[in-house]
Amino acid sequence: LFVDAPLQAGARVALDRGQANYLLNVLRLRDGEAVLVFNGRDGEWRAEVSVEGRKAADLVCRERTREQGPASAIVYAFAPLKHARLDYMVQKAVEMGAGVLQPILTRRTQASRVNLERMRSNVIEAAEQCGILSIPEVREELSLERFLKDLDPEHLVVFCDEDAPVSNPVQALAKLGNNQAGLVVIVGPEGGFTDQERALVAAHERCVCVSLGPRILRADTAAVAALAIVQSVLGD
Ligand code: SAM
């Protein structure tokens, strides 16, 4: 369970109504029973439920069960999709190891505005579900141009392009070795990138354009495929 409070031995964490309801009525935990909590900074802790009334509960931290490891540095840059598809893509990106979620606005991006709060709560839910202890960062949307302009030239951009010659992406990436100063995976919108956008990305100093196979994948499928390959070849 994610709690936004400092975690240390003996610390008492007040739960909000939703969290108390989840522990007391969904998990049906009783006073003194334990749950594992994390806050994205202090590792994972075993904490005991301290019932404070019919609908209220606190948690009391007892001992750390996992150290806080390094967060993933993989930046997943993507053209935001609409509502449920975006929720799904954000969850899969977290499960597949993205450490930063960077919405990029391209000419054919469907969603003009991005609900960052909704994305952040999806990220937390995905982190709880897949058992990571860090909370991937959700950044403000940027135009593709702005994003590339601000990007460290040392960062390697893995550009997923369905028009790239079909080749084995694992081999294409394995040649690079994993001494990446920083790693960015870019997936485009349902309508694809324009040729100008392709040229913009290709102009980045360190850019490898990969095909994810001969079939055209939906953007959320491409997210899973691309991050799985990148993690397996270049992951930390
Ligand atoms: N241009 C595509 C079409 O003709 O339908 C639409 C783009 S596709 C739905 C969304 C994004 O997923 C693309 O911009 C690309 O980043 C990625 N993608 C989809 N299939 C891919 C493939 N076979 N290889 C590499 N990237 C792919």
Automatic annotation (TrEMBL):
<keyword id="KW-0963">Cytoplasm</keyword>
<dbReference type="InterPro" id="IPR046886">
    <property type="entry name" value="RsmE_MTase_dom"/>
</dbReference>
<feature type="domain" description="Ribosomal RNA small subunit methyltransferase E methyltransferase">
    <location>
        <begin position="73"/>
        <end position="231"/>
    </location>
</feature>
<dbReference type="InterPro" id="IPR029028">
    <property type="entry name" value="Alpha/beta_knot_MTases"/>
</dbReference>
<keyword id="KW-0949">S-adenosyl-L-methionine</keyword>
<comment type="function">
    <text>Specifically methylates the N3 position of the uracil ring of uridine 1498 (m3U1498) in 16S rRNA. Acts on the fully assembled 30S ribosomal subunit.</text>
</comment>
<dbReference type="InterPro" id="IPR006700">
    <property type="entry name" value="RsmE"/>
</dbReference>
<dbReference type="Pfam" id="PF20260">
    <property type="entry name" value="PUA_4"/>
</dbReference>
<protein>
    <recommendedName>
        <fullName>Ribosomal RNA small subunit methyltransferase E</fullName>
        <ecNumber>2.1.1.193</ecNumber>
    </recommendedName>
</protein>
<dbReference type="InterPro" id="IPR046887">
    <property type="entry name" value="RsmE_PUA-like"/>
</dbReference>
<comment type="similarity">
    <text>Belongs to the RNA methyltransferase RsmE family.</text>
</comment>
<keyword id="KW-0808">Transferase</keyword>
<dbReference type="GO" id="GO:0008168">
    <property type="term" value="F:methyltransferase activity"/>
</dbReference>
<keyword id="KW-0698">rRNA processing</keyword>
<dbReference type="Pfam" id="PF04452">
    <property type="entry name" value="Methyltrans_RNA"/>
</dbReference>
<keyword id="KW-0489">Methyltransferase</keyword>
<dbReference type="GO" id="GO:0032259">
    <property type="term" value="P:methylation"/>
</dbReference>
<feature type="domain" description="Ribosomal RNA small subunit methyltransferase E PUA-like">
    <location>
        <begin position="15"/>
        <end position="59"/>
    </location>
</feature>
<dbReference type="InterPro" id="IPR029026">
    <property type="entry name" value="tRNA_m1G_MTases_N"/>
</dbReference>
<dbReference type="InterPro" id="IPR015947">
    <property type="entry name" value="PUA-like_sf"/>
</dbReference>
